[in-house]
Amino acid sequence: MEILIVGAGIAGLSTSIALSHALKNVASCQPLKIIVLESASALAEIGAGVQMTPQAIKNFFAWGMKDDLLSSSAIPTSMNVRHGPSGDIIGKIPIGDLEQDYQAPYLVVHRAVLHSILHSHALKAGVEVRTNSRVTEYGFETATVTLADGTTRTADLIIAADGINSLARKQFLGPDDPGALPTGWAAFRMICSADAIKADASVAPLLEGYGSNLWIDHNVSCMTYLIKDSTMLNIVLSHRDDVETQDWTPEYHKTYVDGLFKEFDPRVKKLIDMAVPKIVNYPVYAVPPLKKWIHDSGRFVLLGDATHAMAFYLSMGVSLAVDDAASLGEALRLALSEPDVVQTKEGKYARMKKALHVFEQVRIPRASSIQAASLHAGGILHMPPGPDRELRDEGLRHCDQYWPVEPACEDERRDFERVRSCMYGIADKRTRDWCYGYDSADAIRGVWRSQ
Ligand SMILES: *[C@@H]1O[C@H](CO)[C@@H](O)[C@H](O)[C@H]1NC(C)=O
Q1: Which GO terms fall under molecular function for this chain's record (predicted)?
Q2: What digits encode the pLDDT tens for the residues 340-399?
Q3: Which domain, by its residues, includes 135?
Q4: Atom 9 in ligand 1: which residue has the minimum CA distance?
Q5: Spatial separation of the C-alpha atoms in residues 214 and 211, rounded to whole Å
Q6: Alpha carbon of 166 to ligand 1 centroid (Å)
Q7: Closest CA relative to residue 444, chosen from 341, 335, 336
């Protein structure tokens, strides 16, 4: 069995590890060869911290990455949600306690560090990672790829995890490819030295519990957390995506950001002043829900950001790709280890087709509901003053419990739903259960049995 994975980002490497684990004892897949094709000449990840949620971390742990991950990441004690102008804490989301409920912690890890851990575990699992291998064309029917140098390669299965601007998606969906679309939000990002913050008594206390703070107000917010072995504070300033910043000088970026946050807690302004002088604006794009992720041949599947890139207000973007990987592994394991698995290629492809169908049936609705919840959370975070915002803040004050309490009778259901609709994403315990209590393999098995 040969599987080609296109893209050596977090999604592609996670998938290679998931499949190695899922298929290693499946007789009909032996010998198992998994090759990851990366277009770049070297593996490198840029970017800052990524937030990883418990249900994804649970998979990483199951794949043997526990020690490496824990020794190079941070578990914030709580995320302090603060009123933007005053800086007063509205609620403390108990991030550090999540392991009790979900059997794995919520972690913050530098993207490059996570990437290198994944790379070494992929190699350890026997995966071959090839750089300088840019795919220019896909043969969906025959599981063939053509590389930039003109060579072609045919496998049993092709998995494209080639990111938000996916070429595979473009060729697969043709005119039906919606592309990545603006979400209406953007973020100015910058980093600040933790030592500099520690040396200033007015802001030093903000680093307690790994510095996870979130100041919120109408249309703007400031999120901070420590990265790079706690040597740097990552600062993410969300705002409406209504300015074109391409031609801005660094000075003008600063002037604009100062204007946006002029009413904020003076400590936020101080952090911005102390940050390394480079401020970059990133409009936030999302891929709208796609009609299909798999080809009818049963030999091509698209996953990761290529299918569901989304706004970051639920911190689920990267974790969702890990769920994809675990789900695909379980679907293929079930299909290919059935006792009567047919030994001909055609027989196996028919099984794979069934596996991919189950995968798609589980993942499309799951990913699109998480995407919608993420965008909703962005809206809630940046609400204007008013009664809805008071409901949100009441929810933030109760974020360690199921809030609002279950309605006692049907008549109260509407009020209950109204309050729920104003709750902020991960501050809502029911949303946390829905996001982090999710077991990818279980969801696949449930649909598998019903087929
Ligand atoms: C908030 O954003 C909306 C949508 O872009 C805009 O219409 C409104 O004027 C903004 N309000 C403030 C106070 O920034």
Answers
A1: FAD binding; monooxygenase activity
A2: 777 788 899 999 999 999 999 999 999 999 999 999 999 999 999 999 999 999 999 999
A3: 2-73+109-180+287-378+438-450
A4: 219
A5: 10
A6: 32
A7: 335
